[in-house]
Amino acid sequence: MKQEVDQQHPISMYLKVWLLLFVLSSFSYMVDYFQFQGILRWSLILVFMFVKAALILIVFMHVKWERLAMKLVIFLPPIAIVVLISLMYVEGDYIHFNRLASFIN
Amino acid sequence: MTTHKKQEEQVDGWQGVVNDWSAEKENFNMPWGKLMMWIFLLSDTFIFSIFLTGYMNVRLSNVALWPNVSEVFSLTIAGQHIPLILIAIMTFILITSSGTMAMAVNFAYRGDRQKAALLLAITAFLGLSFVGMQAFEWTKLIVEEGIRPWGNPVGAPQFGAIFFMITGFHGLHVSAGVILLAVIAKRVRQGRYDKQGFQIVEIVGLYWHFVDLVWVFIFAFFYLW
User: Could you give the CA distance from residue A53 to residue A59 in angstroms, rounded to a whole number?
Assistant: First the structure.
């Protein structure tokens, strides 16, 4: 079956990705351990997070070897989540501002 | 006719999408269980995203001080005060279990059912130890720190609600995964899938990797932010 042929990757590939994930996790732990603050902290956390998530999705979950029709099923709907996050970010900021303003009054 | 059809299937990219959807056949060339698992994971993505978005909103709009997460989850090991160490260990365990899971899928498709079953069992064991550590963490927070879903002595009252909700829901996923992995490991070892093929291992694998994937986001947003 085509399916089974697709799965024939050498074990070393998984070990490499696993090692990479391990190192990236250590890095993100270091961000906290050395108490980086501000923009540097947030950007480092996000970068490590996205690289880890991408590695898990692409290699471990085999998305790389799926057809485009399948990738679209997985990646198109979450665009709605991005919209939600953006809206809620604006909303949260606005509520925060209003709360502070009401305390001043 | 068959050769023509094969050629058509091999085209990927946008032409492949058009072929897949317009041909009079199944749209996705995979076992139905795998497709359904992807659909389920997609819905789960939405659930966890909504939890995390709610958390973001609460944290943004809160005027009370958010607890210092690094301190709340610190442990004192051999007289050394180490911040966030338990969570780091849990992260490493989950990543390792993801690695063994990927290898189990690989061995299953090679037909090596002994190795596949062993790796599945290791994955289940690692998952179990993750749940155990989480139980320890919860106990510590509830008993020693007095953190409750409605309030806590260390800062913003929503901290407890968010923490128990998100990690509890993730922990439930891990627990369900451990049970599933144990059952599948046993069946693989008994040779139940020798005839019908080992797609089930890949399907369970997808679920397990997803649990790891969610943890990556929880670790970043809840524990590190």
Answer: 10
Mutate to test the interface with B, among A5, A12, A14 (most CBs of B within 10 A): A14
- Global pTM reads 0.91
Q: Which residue type, as a one-letter code, is found at position B219?
A: F
Contact B14 A45 (CB under 8 A): no
With b for 16 or more beta-carbon neighbours within 10 A and e for fewer, the B116-154 pattern comes to bbbbbbbbbbbbbbbbeebeebbeebeeeeebeeeebeb
pLDDT band per the 50, 70, 90 thresholds, residue B217: very high
Do the Cβ atoms of B88 and B173 come closer than 8 Å?
Answer: no
* Residue contact A69–B99, C-beta within 8 A: no
Tell me how far apart the alpha carbons of residues B60 and B221 are, in angstroms, rounded to a whole number: 13
Report for A38-42, B48-52, B58-62, B144-148: range of highest mean pLDDT:
B48-52
Which element (helix H / strand E) includes B147?
A: none
Cβ-Cβ contacts under 8 Å, A84 against chain B: 49-50, 53
User: What span, in angstroms and rounded, lies between the C-alpha atoms of A81 and B46?
Assistant: 7
